[in-house]
Amino acid sequence: MDVRLTSEQRQLRDAAAKLADDLGPGSVAELDDEKRRARLERAVDVAGWRALRTDGASGVEVAIVAEEFGRRLIDVAFLGPVLADDLYGKPAEDGDTWTVAVGERAIDARDRGRALFVEDNSLFAISVGDAAPGADLTRHKAHLTGDREHIGELSADQVIQWQALAVTVTTADLLGVARGAQDLAVEYAKMREQYGKTIGSYQAVAHLLAESQALIEGSVSVLRHAAWAVDELTPAEALRAARIAKLYTARAARTICETSIQVHGGIGNTWECLAHVYLRRALTSTELFPVRLEEIDLGLS
């Protein structure tokens, strides 16, 4: 495989990064800014980010967008809708707004009307109900309500490939979150002074940040392979690659987020510091389509 991004993929990454930088929350207080979120919602909708798969995007390209959105804590629905788009296989009709359901909850359900889920290779839809409690301050869960509707049938390979995409996209979100938490810590270390010097000039802090950066580079490597595998390898091989990437990146992201809090010192443990928002999102993405080491060792069993 060639892990280098094409010129079109670099342009996609730059466009996603610019949108995220311009309209993502820059502080905890901005999470409550409904005007900002409305502008973000319109921008994501107009750009068609949620319909990437039906527009012919590869797993690599979906992961690129998910990573940039995770980096800046994008707080409108993306992950759930793009996975629903892959499941449904065609644009939503009659103003439907889709996400996916995991267990008894709709995930990434802000402003979503219906949720898709797979049971025994059958695809079902169900209405999204009231919001459910959750730790993530940037993405909402919701209860499911009403009767389920049978939408269609999927082959076993289609289900496994979708699972590979789901695990890969949550891994991309984790990598983006790790990058965002690292950027937050690095910027703080550049400006915070102790004993007349910036704290980033002290070896103890510099080594912590260097170790976090090494974990990010390792995560980039395994994620790129998993994202490529979604469309290029067999579904079983793609799922195994995704699980390996998820396991490594989830552990790395938690360490990086906790290190970011540590580098911030006392302020890192306050509500006003964004570091805890990154950690909350990392923990939530880890538990979406979770992976255990035993699953990798035993294949698909």
Strand content: 5-15%
| Structural category | alpha+beta
Give the strand order of the largest sheet, numbering strands 1, 2, ... along the chain.
Answer: 1-2-5-4-3
The strand count comes to 7
Distance between the termini: 27 Å
Elements, N to C (H/E): HHHHEEEEEHEEHHHH
Largest sheet: 5 strands, mixed, barrel
Uncertain ranges: none
The percentage helix is: 55-70%
What integer value in Å does the Rg equal?
Answer: 19 Å
Silhouette: globular
Instruction: Please report the number of helical segments.
Output: 9
- pLDDT averaged residue by residue: 95
Description:
- It is a single chain.
- By secondary structure, the protein is an alpha+beta fold.
- It contains 9 helices and 7 strands, in the order H-H-H-H-E-E-E-E-E-H-E-E-H-H-H-H.
- The protein has helices at 7-23, 34-47, 59-71, 79-88, 156-191, 203-232, 235-264, 275-287, 293-297, and strands at residues 98-102, 105-106, 114-119, 122-132, 141-153, 193-194, 197-198.
- A 5-stranded mixed beta barrel has the order 1-2-5-4-3. A two-stranded antiparallel ribbon has the order 6-7.
- Helix 1 runs parallel beside helix 3 and helix 7 (235-264) runs antiparallel to helix 8.
- The chain is globular, with a radius of gyration of 19 Å.
- The two termini are 27 Å apart.
- The mean pLDDT is 95.
